[in-house]
């Protein structure tokens, strides 16, 4: 084991290299492809826009104490969200998002453990 001290610049350069390597993994590539499909899908974009509209409306209704209208609005959001979630490309995107998140959490855990182990020496 060498006792080399890395400069901040060297650490950042290594981190950038690791980030580049991670972005080339199959999980991230699949995520990027799924994201592109989502962006290109007009139905998905329409539903997302509608959901955002109703969410803003819900915030206003809640703020002004319009309880009944708020609950009706939330029901519309739930219906639109269910419709969105039923679209296969959305399911694919959510799964790829989960896979990438799990992968990044694993990488973070490995780095944290390595740092902790180095501090114990």
Automatic annotation (TrEMBL):
Gene3D superfamilies registered for this protein in UniProt: YheA/YmcA-like
Domain of life, source organism: Bacteria
Pfam families reported for this sequence: Com_YlbF
InterPro entries per the UniProt record, alphabetical: Bact_com_dev_regulator, Biofilm_formation_YmcA, Com_YlbF, YheA/YmcA-like_dom_sf
PANTHER family reported for this sequence: REGULATORY PROTEIN YLBF-RELATED (PTHR38448), YLBF FAMILY REGULATOR (PTHR38448:SF1)
UniProt name for this protein: RicAFT regulatory complex protein RicA family protein
Biological source species: Sporolactobacillus shoreicorticis
Upper classification of the organism: Bacteria, Bacillati, Bacillota, Bacilli, Bacillales
């Amino acid at each position: 084991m060498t006792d080399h001290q890395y400069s901040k610049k060297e650490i950042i350069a290594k981190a950038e290299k690791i980030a580049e390597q991670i972005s080339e993994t199959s999980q991230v590539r699949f995520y990027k492809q799924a994201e592109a499909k989502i962006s290109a899908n007009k139905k998905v974009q329409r539903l997302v826009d509608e959901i955002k509209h109703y969410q803003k409306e819900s915030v206003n209704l809640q703020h002004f104490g319009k309880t009944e209208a708020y609950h009706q609005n939330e029901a519309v959001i739930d219906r639109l969200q269910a419709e969105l979630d039923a679209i296969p490309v959305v399911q694919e995107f959510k799964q790829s998002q989960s896979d990438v998140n799990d992968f990044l959490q694993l990488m973070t855990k490995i780095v944290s453990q390595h740092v902790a182990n180095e501090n114990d020496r």
